[in-house]
Amino acid sequence: MESHLTDILPKLFVVPIRLDKLANCNCCDQLDLEAQQYNSIYLTGDSIKEAKKAATSLCTLVSDVVDGNLDNGFAVIRPPGHHAEPAVAGGYCLLNNIAIAASYARAKLNIEKVLIVDWDVHHGNGTQSIFLDDPNVLYFSVHRWHGGNFFPFLQNGGPTNIGKENGTGYNVNVGWTRKGMGDEEYFAVWERLLMPIANEFNPDLILVSAGFDAAEGDLGECNVTPECFGSLTQSLMSLANGRVVCSLEGGYVRSILGKCVKSVVSALLDPESPRIAKMEEEEAARERNSEEILDCIDPTAAKNIRATIAAHQPYWQCLRAE
């Protein structure tokens, strides 16, 4: 599989040439010297080999889901990928697993449109850069941004970075400007932005950059519960005939990470997930007595969501009544 991917995805499957030459290198000083060339990279002699295994295993899972051998799936892989750009490592990421899988699905599995949902607390700058001009891959990220003052410390994770050329409107960022966002804020993102846009886009496959560092008690200083991650997954399963594949990104407190993964996997395994998600959304609306959901959440979060809505109104019919 690895050589096959290298043939069809040369742009995404290449690692920096110096790093490729260091495969199986046991010289710690040399590895450390090379790692210093990149932002937040640590290398061992097996790093390149393991990164390639992670990417190819995700592609195998995606193939099984698209071919109907599996309904959906969760790839528990390391290293993560969403900060990696072509030939540029960063943020503990050597290869962009999600981007490779999306490109593989389109190149070899007859998938036309892919929705990538990134709920890691950090912006997936690598994934964004790879698909910035591609109208067949909708990249949707909700993350801490703080005007570029949160890792990866880039300005381009904000609401007005909407894509370019043919991909204009297909890059959607909800960038939090305050820490502490929790379940209600993420439910509001799904209800007011992600699900309306996703239904209009009508993807053939859903890929999730499933980082859990936004979980309550993890290092991202947000308050999303494991149950919320499960509910977000249930909603996504109403799309693309339930073909949802998650790939592990961040998450650094193992006890919390395990609970979050369990919640998402439980949602993936339940064929009733789309119906449950719809019922929960209707119940939440009744409890609000038809009050606008953005008026019921953290005001800073509501402002951040409205900024993204405003930036994308010209490109999505579902947002034009806002």
Describe this structure in words.
With 322 residues, the protein is an alpha/beta fold. The chain has one domain: 3-Layer(aba) Sandwich (Arginase, Chain A). 43% of the residues lie in helices and 10% in strands. It has 12 helices and 6 strands. The protein has helices at 2-8, 10-13, 17-21, 28-35, 47-66, 97-108, 125-131, 183-201, 226-236, 254-269, 273-287, 299-312; strands at residues 73-75, 114-118, 137-144, 171-176, 205-210, 244-248. The protein has a 6-stranded parallel β-sheet, with helices on both faces. Helix 7 (125-131) links the parallel strand 2 (114-118) and strand 3. The mean pLDDT is 93.
Features:
322 residues, alpha/beta, Arginase, Chain A, 6-stranded parallel beta sheet, 12 helices, 10% strand, globular
Layout of strands and helices, then pairs:
Blueprint: H1 2-8, H2 10-13, H3 17-21, H4 28-35, H5 47-66, E1 73-75, H6 97-108, E2 114-118, H7 125-131, E3 137-144, E4 171-176, H8 183-201, E5 205-210, H9 226-236, E6 244-248, H10 254-269, H11 273-287, H12 299-312
Parallel strand pairs: 1-6, 2-3, 2-5, 3-4, 5-6
Helix pairs in contact: 5-6, 8-9, 8-12, 9-10, 9-11
Which range best describes the helical content: under 10%, 10-25%, 25-40%, 40-55%, 55-70% or over 70%? 40-55%
Looking at the overall shape, the CATH architecture is: 3-Layer(aba) Sandwich
Report, as a whole number of angstroms, the end-to-end distance.
Answer: 46 Å
What sort of overall outline do the alpha carbons produce when their principal axes are compared? globular
Number of strands: 6
Give the CATH class: Alpha Beta
pLDDT averaged over residues:
93
How much strand content do the residues show?
A: 5-15%
Instruction: Provide the spatial order of strands within the biggest beta sheet.
Output: 1-6-5-2-3-4
In N-to-C order, the SSE pattern is: HHHHHEHEHEEHEHEHHH
CATH homology superfamily name: Histone deacetylase domain
